[in-house]
């Protein structure tokens, strides 16, 4: 996840330096980075909640 974020930042900087008039690239890159970060966070939250549910099921079946 962190590697993908760093690669995206490097690509953004390279792309902006090659075409300095295109500011939209910065916003698109930042928006994509924010989406990737929040998707990762939501996935991690979903995994922990799923784990808690499995633990509760195990407790109830014993």
TrEMBL record:
Domain of life the protein comes from: Bacteria
Name of the protein in its database record: Uncharacterized protein
Biological source species: Pseudolactococcus reticulitermitis
């Amino acid at each position: 996840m962190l590697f993908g974020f760093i690669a995206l930042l490097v690509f953004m900087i390279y792309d902006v330096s090659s075409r300095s008039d295109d500011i939209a690239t910065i916003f698109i890159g930042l928006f994509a980075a924010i989406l990737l970060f929040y998707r990762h966070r939501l996935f991690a939250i979903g995994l922990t909640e799923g784990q808690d549910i499995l633990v509760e099921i195990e407790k109830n079946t014993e």
